[in-house]
Specification:
The complex is a heterodimer of chains A (about 325) and B (about 250).
Chain A lengths: L1 E6 L9 H11 L4 E9 L3 H8 L6 E6 L8 H12 L4 E5 L2 H14 L3 E5 L1 E4 L2 E6 L4 E6 L6 E5 L15 E3 L10 E8 L13 E5 L10 H10 L2 E4 L1 H5 L20 E5 L5 H4 L7 E6 L6 H4 L2 E4 L2 H11 L2
Parallel strand pairs in A: 1-2, 1-4, 2-3, 3-10, 4-9, 5-9, 12-13, 12-14, 14-15, 15-16
Antiparallel strand pairs in A: 6-7, 7-8
Helix pairs in contact in A: 3-4, 5-9
Chain B lengths: L2 E5 L2 E3 L21 E3 L1 H15 L5 E8 L4 H10 L3 E6 L6 H15 L3 E5 L10 H9 L3 E11 L2 E8 L2 E8 L2 E5 L11 H7 L4 E5 L12 E6 L8 E3 L2 H10 L4
Parallel strand pairs in B: 1-4, 1-6, 4-5, 5-11, 6-10, 7-10
Antiparallel strand pairs in B: 2-3, 7-8, 8-9
Helix pairs in contact in B: 2-5, 3-4
Classes of the chains: A alpha/beta (about 325), B alpha/beta (about 250).
Chain lengths: ~325, ~250
């Protein structure tokens, strides 16, 4: 039997949906027993959310004042202490998971599988390389802990309606003091859906040409109830903030609908959207590579087309 | 601070669209343009700027790769690294192996800071910086978009999913460079000439006492599933109709 430990990602009060997607990945492993671990200053609310996910067999909480901030250096030794007795340690392949799990793997002395996108067997997974242009099947030894981050875009979130038991654990680990949390400058909270988990996303690229012009992306997204994304070129140029970047080095997303506005479609961007169910591309260059992956392509000046779309949506 | 170590990986150039070999054994690398991993260029640029501000004395570029990786190290030397070390391997190594090698060198060199790219654009693993930090028993600051050295500590701004996170770490530490940390300089011809005279040591992998096999096997490599061919719509009305039919708007 595979005993899988998933490190929950959260902001202190809310469980990140990426963790629910990692649960779905874990459940695809035959005869899996799935435990979600919540490291927090006060884990109650997050633990309750994790326990409510279908497919979670148990939730363990590790309450500690040092766990108020998600510092890899502080969390890794605790995860390692908790990991004995488990065959697998998972986390979502988000900034949090990418920061934490390699530290855990190295402390355990095992390699890591990054961005697991398909389960082949309990110790075999597929993962993307070369910006998604080569899919590699990896096999890890069964006699060691398997550490993996889970590519969120490849798995649906686990459903609500579970009722796993919650228990508190104490771990013995030396917590370093060499790393200190200073602050988080979060983007202003808005009513917009979260980019990583939104069903619809409208993204803008270099062709928007200015930060002011980028507002038409926000406007269309608002009309559609969509999240806003951006290409690397748009973020580098300062039209949009860094956490909106979609692509190989930004967020990998799989919405039902992705609307690319003025994005040419570099391979590094395409790898971030290939799993979208429907892709719409609006670009005035008919040769733009984005049209190779688009289900619906519109060759048009975005400054004319986007307001027209908004109008047509009523 | 005395010394900054920077990782320089030889990778397929970012403009190349790689092809998977038909037998599923890997990707075709023959005759493909190779470059310095773009994130490593950013890491090196940051190290050079720290040195140019008078906050470090020496920048050492390290690569783990075949003999040909000397080309990428020469590029690093032309950018401004003071010297280079190539740890010679014949086959690509797992990030855990690379991390063990870099940790050995960081200890041997008595480095005060290690800066790596946040990921390599070939395996996209994004593991090496946190692994080196763990093996070295030092702080890590991954996805750095701003680095401020204050004597024995550093304040680093990190690009995380919620926005920008700031942490303070004691040195020595390991940082990984994100896209917006800086814009790497262009190499000028006189610097390329000068780089030829800078020291580049070649170290045999076997001499470091690090095991090459960590048990992870690649059993198959395949191209991604292609998306079904789409259509070009003639105007906004047709587009909105199509999306309405699919229940998407």
């Amino acid at each position: 039997m595979s005993k899988i430990l998933i490190v929950a990602e959260h902001d202190g009060t809310t469980l990140n949906q990426a963790t629910a997607r990692a649960v779905t990945c874990a459940r695809q492993i035959p005869a899996a027993h799935v435990t979600v671990a919540v490291f927090a200053a006060d884990p109650a609310a997050v633990a309750a959310a994790a326990a409510a996910l279908v497919g979670v067999d148990a939730v363990v909480t590790v309450a500690h004042a040092a766990n108020a901030s998600p510092l890899a250096a502080t969390l890794a030794p605790q995860v390692v202490a908790l990991a004995s007795g488990y065959t697998h340690v998972f986390a979502a392949s988000t900034a949090f998971g990418k920061d934490l799990l390699p530290r855990v793997a190295a402390l355990l002395g095992v390699p890591q599988i990054s961005d697991a996108m398909a389960v082949v067997g309990a110790y075999s997974f597929k993962r993307p390389t070369y910006a998604g242009n080569a899919i590699v099947t990896l096999e890890a030894p069964a006699d060691r802990t398997l550490v993996a981050t889970v590519r969120s875009a490849s798995f649906e979130p686990a459903a609500q309606g579970g009722s796993a038991p919650i228990s508190a654990a104490t771990v013995t680990a030396d917590l370093p003091t060499h790393t200190r949390f200073v602050g988080l400058s979060a983007s202003p909270k808005s009513d917009r859906p979260d980019l990583a988990s939104a069903a619809k996303v409208v993204s803008g690229g270099r062709a928007l040409a200015s930060k002011e012009n980028f507002n038409i992306v926000y406007s269309l997204a608002g009309k559609m109830g969509a999240a806003v994304g951006a290409s690397r070129a748009a973020v580098d140029a300062g039209y949009a903030s860094n956490e909106l970047q979609v692509g190989q080095t930004g967020k990998i997303i799989a919405p039902d609908l992705y609307v690319a506005v003025g994005i040419s479609g570099a391979i590094q961007h395409l790898t971030g959207i290939k799993d979208a169910k429907t892709i719409v591309a609006i670009n005035k260059d008919p040769e733009a590579p984005i049209f190779e992956v688009a289900d619906f392509g519109l060759v048009a000046d975005l400054f004319v087309a986007v307001p027209e779309i908004e109008k047509a949506l009523g | 601070m005395r010394k900054i170590l920077v990782g320089v990986k030889r990778v397929v150039d970012y403009n190349v669209r790689v092809r998977v070999k038909p037998d599923g054994s890997g990707v075709a690398l023959e005759g493909v343009k190779m470059s310095v991993n773009p994130f490593d260029e950013i890491a090196l640029e940051e190290a050079l700027r720290i040195k140019e501000r008078g906050e470090a004395a020496e920048v050492v570029a390290v690569s783990i790769g075949p003999d040909d990786a000397q080309q990428q190290l020469r590029t690093a030397l032309a950018m401004g690294a003071d010297r280079a070390i190539l740890v010679k391997v014949t086959d690509a190594v797992d990030p855990l192996v690379a991390s063990r090698v870099l940790t050995e060198i960081a200890k041997k060199e008595n480095a005060d800071l290690v800066i790596l790219g946040k990921q390599a654009i070939d395996d996209d693993a994004a593991q090496t910086a946190p692994m080196v930090a763990a093996l070295w028993g030092r702080p890590q600051a991954t996805f750095a978009s701003k680095i401020e050295i204050n004597g024995a500590t550093a304040v680093v701004t990190r690009e995380v999913d919620a926005g920008l996170e700031t942490i303070e770490v004691d040195l020595p530490a390991v940082f990984s460079a994100d896209l917006r940390l800086n814009e790497p300089r262009y190499v000028k011809l006189p610097d390329i000439m000068k780089a030829k005279k800078k020291p580049l040591d070649v170290v045999e992998f076997a001499s470091l006492g690090v095991a090459a096999d960590v048990g992870l096997k690649t059993t198959f490599v395949e191209p991604p599933k292609p998306r079904a061919k789409g259509i070009v719509v003639k105007d906004v009305a047709e587009l909105v109709d199509a999306l309405k039919k699919k229940g998407l708007v």
